[in-house]
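Thread: Carboxylic ester hydrolase, structure

OP (GT): Posting the sequence first so everyone is looking at the same thing. Length is 498 residues per the record. Can we get the structure tokens written out before standup tomorrow? I want them in the notebook alongside the other entries.
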Amino acid sequence: MPTVIKTRYGMLEGRKEGPVRVWKGIPYASPPVGERRLRAPQPPQPWEGIRDAGGFGPVSHQPPDRRGTRFGGESPEHSEDCLYLNIWAPEEEREPLPVMVWIHGGTFVTGSGSQPQFDGALLAERGRAVVVTLNYRLGPFGFLHWAALGDSFDSNLGLLDMIAALEWVQGSIEAFGGDPARVTLFGESAGGMSIAALLACPAAQGLFARAILQSGAAQTMPASQGEAAAREMLAELGLAPEEAERLRELSADAIMAAAHALNRRIGGPFGMLFQPVVDGSVLPEEPLAAVAAGSSRGVPLMVGTNREEGGYFFRPGDPQPPVPDALKLVGSMLGTPYSPEQAEFYGSRGEGAPEILTDMIFWRGALELSERSISHAPVWMYRFDAGVPGHPHFERAVHSAEIPFVFGTLGELERLGGTVGEEHRSVSAAMMKAWAAFAHSGDPSAAGLEWPAYEPGDRATLIFGSPVRLERDPDAARRRMVLPETEGNREQTAKDDE
């Protein structure tokens, strides 16, 4: 198969790396700089000759990778000119393959499609799929409600970038061996939240056929709060509202410094100052409401969480807030009060704030999205349980620990001191097979796993641990505490009491 590919914008030359072909740093939109800063993405400019696609493009401006975990110790170029995607495709395929488009996480302020743990080579090879990763604008460049300041600005720019990338995939992926009718989105944390938002975006309808949300469901900001944050950002920059046009004159460093200061001042330790906003245009309504009304009709979903998500946010020895304070903080984030029963339940377990974050932020979101989706398309639920001994962050199944297992990049775990054994390789193989089977057919059980769809009366959940196994309504008592008021929970509680 050739590595020189003709696209509608020009010729690209990739590389052959073993059994896969790779193209990196492909522009899917014009650089959002100058007058295009804080505006919706525009199509890429055509080029003449053959463009080299052997290296990743710049990443969006973001805080530095001080731990060396994000970019493998490397220091990529940071730039507003960051709208690039990367493609891995198997060799010698004679029929169009499903396409898996990865939306990276990072609380909407960090990350890129070029992180080493997102290398798509093994997933493309073993899964017989075309794997795409992409960058999108982050932080103040991608997720402030700038449209509230006037018609010369747009909001939800990061989401619009993702939509532009999906439009590029629809128009160009056939040349790389992909089937535009079988595009699966998969993403983790903010990537999963982005997918939930895309399910509710009219402009994204029809651009993907199915979706996998890993440790991230619906998370958005109301327009009023988004407008307040945008005006606070102006004030941090020393600009009056009538001076908003000067935003295009400032350096990127000045904007990033102001964003950092603003986040410290009003974002809080678990607040998300930068996130999708329900602006009435790009995102007309809150995703859970849109999904319940049928915006995701016909789009099968896989939804899951990790067993100890919250442990990622508390290092050993870190002080933890008392249980009532942790519940109050989470309640303020969700806009719901906590109950005395919840305080008694979590107070008696001795796990504290990490377990509350796991349940109330991650598991609750997964349950809510799933239960609102199942009347419109099938949903499969999973839980990731595997820990890696010796790893500085992933000795337990905390937030983001599943990503190297999905991509098969277990070497990234070993690079940081983790001990990877056969049980980890077995879990990784099962996850790659399930993710790829879902991309091929819309049903992960096609991977040879017993994995029925999720229903409130059964709550079948595949556990990716040792061993990989199916459980029905795992941790039922915790589940009822997480979502005590849902119709599905009341139905299950009645069955349990019979």
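GT: Both are above now. Quick notes for whoever picks this up: The chain is about 35% helix and 15% strand. The first helix runs from residue 121 to 127.
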